[in-house]
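JOB MANIFEST
job_type = single_chain_structure
chain_count = 1
residues = 64
[input]
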Amino acid sequence: MPKANLVEGAAETTPQGGPQVSRAPEDVRGRLSNLRRGVQRGRTAGSETNGQGFGPDSTYNQER
């Protein structure tokens, strides 16, 4: 039976919702632009391996 061993009132109640953070739209736009640029750089770097996924400088080959 679920929750059969719980004792009523034993746990403290905590406020739900998390921190309320207000950011300026320019800050959010800048962060998202940086994220998009980083993703694009990663995709470009990944495509430079001729589609094989592991280039000559890959850490995959170094650890093998």
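[summary]
Residues 25-47 form the longest helix (23 residues).
The chain has two helices and no strands.
exit_status = 0
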